[in-house]
Design brief:
Elements: H1 2-9, H2 18-32, H3 34-40, H4 55-59, H5 64-69
Helix pairs in contact: 2-3
């Protein structure tokens, strides 16, 4: 399950499919539990420059709406 979560989290998702991708990541969070999930995908929002063009991907800030929903 860990390898699959890593692969899914690294997919380049188009806006059209973003909602479904969020639901998929949320399902991983529910199935694995928060501790195991964040061992695989730790949040790193304070480790990167907020002005970076790759901030969302590098910091995994894209997980914030998923955390709030699931």
């Amino acid at each position: 399950m860990v390898d699959l979560l890593n692969m899914v989290s690294n997919l380049q998702i188009a806006r059209l499919n973003y909602s479904g991708w969020n639901e998929c990541i949320g399902a991983f969070l529910n199935a694995m539990g928060s501790e195991a999930f964040f061992e695989v995908l730790p949040m790193r929002v304070v480790e990167y420059d907020l002005n970076s063009l790759t901030f969302a991907q590098d910091s995994r800030s894209y997980l914030l709406p998923i955390i709030l929903k699931y």
